[in-house]
Amino acid sequence: GRQRNRNVAKGIPTLIVLDSQGEVITRQGRVEVLNDIECREFPWHPKPVLELTDSNAVQLNEGPCLVLFVDSEDDGESEAAKQLIQPIAEKIIAKYKAKEEEAPLLFFVAGEDDMTDSLRDYTNLPEAAPLLTILDMSARAKYVMDVEEITPEIVEAFVSDFLADKLKPEPI
């Protein structure tokens, strides 16, 4: 039945999950169903930091995204990167939620695979890892921070400079 489920989901353009108060839990229901056919994580509260995959890459087009590229050959590197960004992402999400606004950034960790390679090609990013970026596809702008080691302080400063319009965009 798995193949059939997949086809059904293909026919669903958008699936928005609401809570009992009618508040949006996620607008990414379609992606979530495809990634979690058994619905183990239903109702799919958004995770503050996502690992970039073929199925959630469409979200890169929805607005500015912080993407931390890591060397995933190195075991545990993606997990460590997620742990690093998570508190910062949670803080920003909570701050905007309190104002009843959508967070101004989505947060991703990207390992190494074909999809990530083509994203780097498309956005003309250097091969370096770790590489801290903010990609804004709709504005065709990127912000890149190439540092030896990425620390929470660096991520936090990068994000707050971005939100304060202090960073100079490079064209994608």
From TrEMBL:
Position of the signal peptide: none
InterPro entries in alphabetical order: Thioredoxin-like_sf
Name listed for the protein in its UniProt record: Nucleoredoxin
Organism listed in the record: Gallus gallus
Pfam families: Thioredoxin_6
Domain of life the protein comes from: Eukaryota
